[in-house]
Amino acid sequence: MLRSIEQFIFRNLTPLSIRWLPAPEIARASGLAAEVYRQLDREFMSVPPITLHHLNPRLMAGVWSACRESLVAGPDRAMKELIAVAVSQANRCPYCVQAHTSMLLGADDRPALDALEAGGRTNDALANFAAWASATGRKASFSAGRLPFTKRQAPAFMATVVLFHYINRMVNIFLDETMMPVVGKVPVVGDQAFRIFSRVTSGRIVRISAEPGVFLTESPAMKLPEAFGWAADDPAVAGGLLRFADVVRTAADASVDVEVQALVKRQVSAWEGEPPGLGKGWLDAAVSELPERLRPQARLALLSALASWAVDSGEIELCRRAGLDDRALLDTAAWGAFLAAERIAGWVGRQPVIVRKDSKDFRDGKDERGRRA
C-alpha cells in the first residue's frame, strides 16, 4: 500500500514541478525509458531530476547510470547525501537541498545534519567534509591540502560531487524550487508533509542496497575522459561516468550547432568557478561573435554551465524563436551543465587523498561519537 502511494506521488505529483518541458508519461513508456523507470522504482524513485531527461532516453539512462553508481550503489550513503546537500547549497539549488536534506533526515543521521549547520566553522571532521564539498565549485579552493577521505572512497565521493554540479544546474533550469509543488505552497502543511515524507519515504529509499555496476546500456567505445581519470580505480563509478559523458556528447552532436559548441567549450575551458558578472552583459559579449540566429542556443548553453539560476522564460522564448524544440532545449542545457561539471571534475581530481595509518575509511561507517551511521 505504501509503495503504491509513493509511486502515485512520484509518477503523478512530483512531475508537476517540471517547467518548459513536457512531463514524462511513465506508465506509457517503452524500451530503454521503461527500463530506466523500472530500475529507478526498485532502487531509488522516479524523481524529476532524472525523469526530466525523458525526451532523450539514452541521455536519461546515462544520467541515471552516473547517479546510481556514485550516490545510490555501494557504501557510505549518508556521506554521499551530505555531499549532495553541501554542493546543492553552494549552487543555490533549493529543490536539491530539500530533497537530500530529506534523505539525511530519513537516514536519521544527526551528526551529518549538524555538520551542514556548522558550515565548516568548527574542526569537526564531518563539518570539514561538508565544507570541502561546498567549495568544490571554485578552483581556487583546491590550491593546497588533502581530500578529507581515503583513496577507496575517493571515486564515489568525487563522482557524487560531479553529479550534483550537473544535476543542480538542470534542476535550476527545469524544475520549481520545491519537490512538493502542491502542498509546499501552504507552509504549515508543507512542513508537516516534508517531515512525514522524510521519515517514511526517504527513510526507506536511503536504506536500499543496490549492487554496483548493474548497467542498462553497453559500455561505449570512447575512453574515460581525462577529467574523470580519478574514477578509474572503481570500475562501477568509472562505468557510470563514462556512459554519462558519452550520451551527453552524443546529445550535443545531435542538437547543438558546431559553432555554438566551439564558442561554449572555449568559454568554459577558461572558467575557474567564479560567478559571472551582474546582469547579462557578460553573456551578450560572450555570444556576440556568433551569427544572430545561433546566439539564443549559445546563451542557453553558457547559462546552463555558468549561471543556471539565471535561465528564465525570456531565454527559453529566444530559443523557441530560433527554432529549438523541446529535445534541443534539453540537449543544449544538458551539454552546458555537463561541461561545467567536467571542468570541476578536473580540478577536484588533482587534490591528494589522505592516508590513514590504520587503513580505515574516513568515518568508517560511524558518526563522530562512534555509533553506526
TrEMBL record:
Gene3D superfamilies: AhpD-like. GO terms for molecular function: peroxiredoxin activity. InterPro entries: AhpD-like (IPR029032), AhpD_core (IPR004675), CMD-like (IPR003779). It comes from Chlorobaculum thiosulfatiphilum. Pfam families: CMD (PF02627). Residues 64-107 form the Carboxymuconolactone decarboxylase-like domain. This is Carboxymuconolactone decarboxylase-like domain-containing protein. It comes from the Bacteria.
